[in-house]
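Changelog-adjacent note: as of this version, every example in the card shows the full chain rather than a window. The one below runs 49 residues end to end.
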Amino acid sequence: MTTTTVSGTQTAHIDFHALLRPVLTALRFTGHFVVALVGVIFLGSASEH
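Full-length structure tokens:
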């Protein structure tokens, strides 16, 4: 594959993946954080009752 034959859609697709990877990583971290936070709140409220 040479750089001269790369089409515009292909480069846009590569850039999209490059931008999406850190976003997915951030979502994965925030997802785990939210799940842990909800679990702590749920356990805390359950222990109070």
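Structural remarks: The first helix runs from residue 8 to 48.
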